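User: Predict the complex with guanosine-5'-triphosphate.
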Amino acid sequence: MNNVARKTNMDAAAVLAAAPYPFLVLSTDLTVVEVNAAYLKTVGKTREEMIGRDVFSVLPADAKDVDNERALRASVERVIQTGKPDTIMALRYCMSRQTPTGPVSDERYWSLVYTPVLDDAGHTQLIIVNPIEVTELYAHEKEAAPADAHRDFGLLTEGNILKRGQLLEESHRRLAEERARLHRIFEQAPGFVYIVQGPDAVYEIVNEAGYQLVGHRELVGRPAREAMPELEAQGYFVLLDQVMATGKPFVGREVHMEVQPVPGGPITEHYIDFVFQPLFAADGSVSGVFVQGNDVTEQKLAKEALAISNERWKLAIEGTGDGVWDWNIQTNEVTYSKRWKEILGYAEDDIANRFDEWEQRLHPDDHDTALAELHASIDGQPYYSEYRLRCKDGSYKWVLGRAEVVGRDPAGKPTRMTGTMSDISQKKEADELIWYHASFDSLTGLPNRRLFRDRLAQEVKKAHRTGTEFALLFIDLDRFKDVNDFLGHDAGDLLLKQAGERLLTCVRESDTVTRPGGDEFTVILTDLHGNAHVENIAEKLIASVAMPFRLKEGVAHISASIGITMYPADGADPEELIRNADQAMYAAKAAGRNQFRYFTRFMQEEAHRRLHLRRELRKALRRGQLYVHFQPVVDLRSHRIAKAEALLRWRHPKLGAVSPAEFIPLAEESGLINAIGDWVFMQAAPWSRRWGAQTGQPFQISVNRSPVQFLSKQNSPDWLTYLDKLGLPGNSISVEITESVLLNATSLVAETLLQYRDAGIQVALDDFGTGYSSMAYLQRFDIDYLKIDQSFVRDIETNAGSRAIAESIIVMAHRLGLKVIAEGIETAGQYAILDAAGCDYGQGYLFSRPVPPDEFEQLLASVPAQGGSGAAGRLHFRA
Ligand SMILES: Nc1nc2c(ncn2[C@@H]2O[C@H](COP(=O)(O)OP(=O)(O)OP(=O)(O)O)[C@@H](O)[C@H]2O)c(=O)[nH]1
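Assistant: Here is the predicted structure with guanosine-5'-triphosphate placed in the model:
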């Protein structure tokens, strides 16, 4: 080597050594003859470790790769052969490096440029190896045209230093673009970004949001402590140091921060969410911190304001006395307010924030409904639910719950519900009281008409569902009006009260007794075992009412008539059943009261007939369809006609003869009896005069007077005036009354009877023996005659009881100074017994049927009245 050359070589060696790019000089046998500092740094070796060694033996262990070695040898071979530079593009090395989280194997790519140093003969003497890292470039190429990447590199390995330079330039340009793009992203990012580097945390990058947060001050290139001194006391630098030291990120949420954008200016407060992310150097050490986050001041303040307003609402609601609850549906946690707990008598700590604290306190009867209503409201129904909750002392309280879904997840599923609880126990009590008064009769405490209707409707539904039958009984007290009229309304009230109590004792608890009004009661009998069961109870009910009622004013006697209708046989709905029971009851009344009647189709027809008859009866008097027959009353001793009973008859042109037993009650109920009764009297009186004249002595005719007639004042005196007008003495008429007139006699009755006595009108007590047969009345009211009811006379020959009764009536009446008339004598045997018993008078078919006046007159002519002369005047009895 000449001097110049040597000098040149030496200069070259100095240049190589100083070059910032790694260089390695190889001999043609691939021994390392020179290496510069940059290369040593890249491979992490000392000069001594490399010089004089085979290049493949000193390459980093990770770089040793069979394919790589083959490519390298081939390239060197080409340089030696051709004396031209050669390039290997993108040789892949996997090099491991240490990081805080352990060794990481990096995939890196290198280009190797081999440049020959030729001797004068043009032969390759030395080879300069120049490695260039192309990892990023390779990645770009691959991204741009993955399929072609390898081909391009393949071409490059053919050796083209120009192309390599272009590639490097391109790579740098792209990197610069990428950096600019990142910058723009940082700049425009809505959140703040700061990047600080080095132990002093020097700001390297700050975006616009970052400046907005802390004010536009000088940051980049300045250490954080110096640029933002106000953060010192707030602990931010401690955090930075911590992240730098540990390499662990730090996350802050809603952290309070105060900054002074202008030195000496006002301090602004912020709340920020942020992340301190460590940045690592190539050697794995922490080189800086990437700070990224958001200013959440507004949200935080809004949230606080909401919380305050929620709190205010809670206070406002609780001020009304309501409790408040807040239910997190997802966690099933419920927050109950203090007042909520107070309503149930609990202290703040007594109740945990659990759903079951509410659920387990629900009244067993309300549990299912309350839960169902709550779940329905979760599904969108408005929540308004009344139920009972158990209090601390074990009692139950009625509350009203109202609530609303206040939170939903993105899918719309409810996540939160808030509600109130009002104490409505007092309102409920008031409601119950109102309900009680609206549903129960205050006098008897029994369900009233409204509740009766409800219960009946329920029974119909239940029986329909279960396929069972039940009975509806209508009970109406007989002639209850008389109790009021004779004993006073208070006594009537007391009797009704006692009657209600008695009825209750006759039925089972499952049956219902009500008082729809007046003197009317109903009984609903369920769980029946045949009609006999119903009849037994009806009998019991009748018997219980028939027992004397002890009232303040004295003892009252009354009876009851019962109408019975059956579900479903007689009616399918409440209305029909009520109508039918009423008709059946009416039938019981019409049949003589103090008894029960079933409703049947036949009864319904009867009801129609009655209605028709009542209409016709109104016209009967005007149309001359009524007439009077007379039946002789015979002196049993003398067999002479002592007097006559006037008996009303009705012959309807279409219906024919209508029985008095049928139309008299209709006349009584309609009030027609007053006019009819007077008419009968007016008919009888002239006949009395005529027959009196015929027989030469006053001829008494008895006229029936209904209790109804006693209650109407107007007619009583008229009879006397009428008799006066006819010039008849009072005893030409006797009045027949029934026992019930005396039983509940008012002063009006007493007065009328007194007037009769004063006028000489005699009084006969009809149907004696069938009612109460009270002796006391007989004396008190100056009765003249007792008429033994024909039911005793009918079986007097065969029934010892009837005979005994008849005989005792006769004895008793005589003791009291009364005469006795036996009704319905049909046989000589009956006559004989009565005569033997001392009965005074008799009437019946044995002597004569009731006959028209002209016939009676003939009878009278042939058989003169008592006191008349001649044996011919005796009635001849048919045997
Ligand atoms: N004391 C009292 N009487 C009442 C009450 N409600 C209704 N009444 C009376 O009860 C009587 C009912 O009479 P009715 O049922 O029509 O007739 P009755 O006298 O019982 O005769 P019959 O039913 O035909 O046997 C009427 O006089 C009413 O004024 C009450 O709460 N207390």
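The longest strand covers residues 102-118.
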